[in-house]
Amino acid sequence: MPMKFSRNSILAIFMIGTFAIGMTEYVVTGLLTQFATDLDVPVSTTGLLLSVYAISVAVFGPILRMVTVKYSPKPLLIGLISIFIISNIVAALAPNFEVLLLSRLLSATMHAPFFGLTMSLAVEISKPEKRTSAIAAVQGGLTIAVMLGVPFGSFVGGFFDWRLVFWIIALLGAITLIGLLLVTPNIRPAEQPKLRKELTVLKNKNVLMIIAVIVFGFSGVFTAYTFKEPMLREIAGFGVTGVTIGLFLFGLGAVIGNFISGRIHPSKLTERLIVTLAILGAVLFLFTFLLSVPFLAYVACFLFGAGTFGTTPILNSKIILAATEAPALSGTIAASVFNLANSIGATLGSLLLNSGFSFSQITFVAAGMILFGMLLMIITHKIEDKSLFSIATDK
């Protein structure tokens, strides 16, 4: 159907929305110390703000998407971003840690469906050869949030008040709402999605192998990432400014890694992913050693971000392109699985920290998990249906 606005305009609005959601999800990693002090809880407990959010995305996201699978994307996106705005207002007004945790759960319910809908619409309005880059563009909002939103939130929380951060995020949500109302095309699927048919994706070996890589391997990223801010403070000896720079460089690496990966031809995704996971595992193994030298600490943050978000669009693309039987559900599944991995990693990191593990030992565990994911990817390369990716740009 003809569109009133250009593809780039629509993708820009989607990116503002994913920027806001990404900032909500990850900004807490730069505010753990502030939460612990203001709400009188241990730093290890504040890690729940990330793990509860992630597990809620993984559990409630697919359920909400399945319930709404027959509805058009535009009204769903408007409803989802409205939930997002309300949840961040609740966070800004939270009188205690429990209410803040509740606001995270509310926000998490809309995360996966929003990402799934925007990624599927981005693919729908793009030429076949630009589908991978369209997915990377939507994901790009989140990575830019990691680059700018997280260090900015850490800076605002450190010098002013962490509550102000959530008011800013709510404002970004309102801007997204206006943009969705004005710009998003009301595209209706040619054939109404059937939930039973969509759920057959859970028998797709190509999708299941990528899910295994994310859950059992990529989750190692979040084992280390959750406590990146305390590590920068304790090992590198950084104050607010140093932590902000470190978070910014992580995000800069994330943005560069994301958009480089978005340029990869679908037929080369698996090979590139194996290499990226190997490099990321090595970076995590060396991470705490590098933190002891200020300059190398900044280099480590950059490489950590580039490796983490250089793999994300590749894994997203592999799920969405392979899940041909679930065009409406595939993007939501991808977002949910990543957040399941996030929850596993964050929870494991908290358990290890509470059990007396040092930050160095935690990063060793994280590196081992990433390298296990690489081994699963090598197996995937041998058994996957490569025709799904070799023809992805010729449909």
UniProtKB/TrEMBL annotation:
Family matches, as InterPro entries: MFS (IPR011701), MFS_dom (IPR020846), MFS_Efflux_Transporters (IPR050189), MFS_trans_sf (IPR036259)
Chief site of localization: membrane
UniProt name for this protein: MFS transporter
Pfam families: MFS_1
Matches recorded under CDD domains: MFS_NepI_like
Compartments (UniProt record): Cell membrane
Residue ranges constituting the Major facilitator superfamily (MFS) profile domain according to the UniProt record: 10-385
Segments crossing the lipid bilayer: 12-35, 41-64, 76-95, 101-123, 135-160, 166-187, 207-227, 239-261, 273-291, 297-316, 328-353, 359-379
Annotated keywords: Cell membrane, Membrane, Transmembrane, Transmembrane helix, Transport
Topological relation to the membrane, as annotated: Multi-pass membrane protein
Keyword Ribonucleoprotein listed: no
